[in-house]
Amino acid sequence: MPFNCSFPFRGASIKLNMITVRQRKGRPSRLRKRDIREKREETGAGRAYSHVWEHYADELRLLDLKLQRLYVRRGQTASDPQADAFRGMYVSEDEFMRMVGGRDGGAEDDPELAALAADIRNAEAVIASRKAESAKRNVFLPLVYLSAVFGLDEIEQSVVMLLLAVELDRKYERVFGFMADDLTVRLPNVGLALQVVCRDADAMRTARLAFAPNGKLARYLLAREDGGEPFGRSLLSKPLALDRRMATFLLDTGAPDETLRPAVTIHYPDEPLAPLVVHLDAQRQLASVASTRNGPVGVLLWGPPGSGKTLQLRHCCAGWGKSLLVADMRVFAEDGAGFAEKLSRIVREAVLHQAALALAHADALFPEEADAKSRERLRIVEEETDRFPLPLFVLTESRAKPDFRSGGRIWLERELAVPGEKERESLWRTFASAAGLPDGEDWSGPAVKYRFTPGQIRDAVADAVALAEWEGKPAAAVVDQACYRQIRHRLERKAVRIEPRYGWDDIVLPDEQKELLRNACAQMKYRSLVYGEWGFERKLAYGKGLSMLYAGPPGTGKTMSAQVIARELRMELYKIDLSQVISKYIGETEKNLHELFLEAHKSSAILFFDETDALFGKRSEVKDAHDKYANIETAYLLQKMEEYEGISILATNLLNNIDEAFLRRIQYVIKFPFPDAEYREKIWRATFPRETPLAEDVDFRWLAGKYEIAGGNIKNVVLSAAFLAAEKGVAVGMREIVQAVRHELQKSGKIISRTDWEDY
Predict the structure, then answer these.
(1) For residue 105, how many C-alpha atoms fall within 13 Å in the half-sphere facing its CB?
(2) Distance, CA of 64 to CA of 56 (rounded, Å)
(3) Closest residue by Cα to residue 218 from 177, 251, 190, 186
(4) Residue 744 lies inside a defined structural domain of this protein
(5) Alpha-carbon gap, residue 362 to 359, rounded angstroms
(6) Are 109 and 20 in contact (CB under 8 A)?
(7) Which among 163, 232, 261, 516 is least buried, having the fewest CB atoms inside 10 angstroms?
(8) Which helix (DSSP H) or strand (DSSP E) does residue 549 occupy?
(9) Does an H or E element contain 550, and which?
(10) Taking Cα atoms as reference points, which of 671, 604, 607 lies closest to residue 638?
């Protein structure tokens, strides 16, 4: 529940009856019974507290009575009162005999002690009555709430109030120093606390258990000493103080522990929530956790960032009427010796707010390959959450399950995968509508291209709105730019990004090849319709991506075609350097391919594997172990291509080297023929930009018929001729073009006859 308590008298002093210590006729003075009676009449038994300070005033009056009782007990066996000037500085003979002779403590049948005992019982009854009435009227009392959530008994609650007294009135610093026989002392110790809150010696012996190291006081409420226990100090002499967070809670505010910020966030059940659009079945499963009565429940929830893990839990907890405390474990994972202390504070904060606890980004705690440090962290997590009574959620990106075994907690697990295309389209529409974008916009395109989580789609829509306002364009025109802002991957380590510059008008291919390329683009554009509305997704367990093979001699347009598709679909294109992927060490190639496709899944990019001849070979021509293993690598590559839901393209110069069994696993096999004279002429004309000055003697038909070179060579020739003309300060003419052709052919060892170029 949210801490929403107002303290109308915060900062005001509370006037309480003071314990006066005077010397009168050789004995300490007592509070006058008339004063006690007057204070009792002022309490108004049976009346609800109007505010927390009124409650604390009653508790301090009760504490004063208990301190008075202790003082009277000690005074009955006091030695020479003149020696009180040296109190705590030495032990007299009489005091020694009192301590070892069993005469310490005072007579319980003393009339004054009996009267004080009656006053204490009356004060306790008044407080109990007023607390009960306050509960009926929903008056929030922090001390009562604290006692309830941590399950404190009467003794533990009295100890907390004893320690809180120092925070409420500094007079108690002097009182505790006097009671401890040491005026330099400002805090009570265990022995003094037991003497004050317990009625007799038997109760004191039982109450010692409250200060055990694994008790509630030590675990949650008491300040911890730095540097360990001093040598030679008894438990009774151990000083006590409230933990600063607990004192703050009791006196000031319910805001989360400042030492845990910003890694800890508390979500309250009455906060507004974004609607759930996907994974509604997961919400039903999580809601069932509340009805589990077989013991503490733990839920492992895994999925990529932005998949909605926290939102699911917030909806779930709101349904229970519970708060949710989310702790980012990345902040604490490397905290070393402080990890246990921080986790203990996190668990305490969850108990304090009666909130379910979610350990977010727990992958940082439990790596795939466990080491001594991670095993120690696991032990600490088990130990600190062992007695946590509310649901515990562990949020990770992968399914790597922590091996929790202790505490008898029932563990359940659920994946929040990337939504399907229809669900993604629904998310795009929902977030776009919430952002005020036009309702008629078609969001199937980005839903198909980008395998985004709900969080990524939400952020992409927000970025698209901001970019549209900044650039003065419609949101639909900048949605791809906004989408790529959400993508975080490391493809650049093993691939080179190519900016797609070519369109359909730039590529010169026979109609058959162009039609295949357009069909491939259509398969990506209409995936949502075919796989979603037409039901083909149910028929395909995998292989919903697009795999293509470009086969043809060098320079025939394979790389250009990949750019055309990337530009048509407005997708990123990455060219894979196989030299960075293929390894001579067994298993290393597969590892590199696995990492490559893992990053590709994050990017939704087109993967273009150029010059794959080194990887392919005839399976029937296995001559040694190397050939056999090469086939294994090829099979693994094709497997990853089938699993990949984006576009993957293989380019080869030697189609005949590829086994037919491999070809059957590729959706589109497009053969790029060496261009004939007709297509070479088209390539010559298309390669020159419109702005290039051409001389009147340029004869593209003659060039196409005379030189049998591929489109890639023609591109090199055109560029070289342009620079030759620029150097001379003339338009590009046949002399520059033929000279550039001669240089291009010489690169491949070809020589043209003098008659072919001497005119130029």
Answers:
(1) 14
(2) 12
(3) 190
(4) yes
(5) 6
(6) no
(7) 232
(8) strand 546-551
(9) strand 546-551
(10) 607
Domain count, the chain: 5
Q: Please check whether residue 468 is in contact with residue 544, taking contact to mean a CB–CB distance below 8 angstroms.
A: no
**Which band of pLDDT confidence, cut at 50, 70 and 90, is reported for residue 615?**
confident
Cβ(217)–Cβ(223) under 8 Å?
no
- CATH number of the domain to which 627 belongs: 3.40.50.300
Secondary structure (3-state) at 213: coil
Same domain, 683 and 540: no
pLDDT band with cut points at 50, 70 and 90 for residue 283: very high
**Quick check: 28 pLDDT over 90?**
no
Query: Do residues 107 and 76 touch, judged by C-beta distance below 8 A?
Result: yes
Q: 475 and 569, same structural domain?
A: no
**Residue 267 pairs with which residues in a beta bridge?**
324
Whether the upstream peptide bond of residue 262 has omega within 30° of 0, thus cis, is yes
Nearest to 743 by CA among 722, 723, 717: 717
Q: Look-up: residue for tokens 């980005």? A: 446
Residue 15 domain flag: no
Residue with token string 């001559």: 623
Same domain, 272 and 396: yes
Please give the helix or strand (H or E) that residue 28 lies within, else none.
strand 27-28
Domain span holding position 440: 421-486
Please state the rounded mean pLDDT for residues 290-308.
Answer: 81
Contact indicator for 242, 223 with CB cutoff of 8 Å = yes
Full 3-state SS string of 137-160: CCCCCHHHHHHHHHCCCHHHHHHH
Helix, strand, coil in percent for the chain, rounding step 5: 50, 10, 40
Dist CA 175 CA 185 (whole Å): 9
Distance CA(41)–CA(9), nearest Å, equals 22
| Cα–Cα distance list, 467 to 120, 430, 472 (Å) | 71, 19, 8
Q: What SS3 class is residue 301? A: strand
- The two three-digit tokens of residue 125, written as one number: 């009854």
Buried b (16+ CB within 10 A) or exposed e, 111-146: ebbeebeebbebbbebbebbbeebeeeebbbbbbbb
pLDDT band at 656 (very low <50, low <70, confident <90, very high): confident
pTM comes to: 0.75
Which tokens in the block code for residue 292?
């589990």
| Distances, alpha carbon 83 to alpha carbons 88, 95, 183, 192, 375, in Å | 10, 11, 15, 22, 60
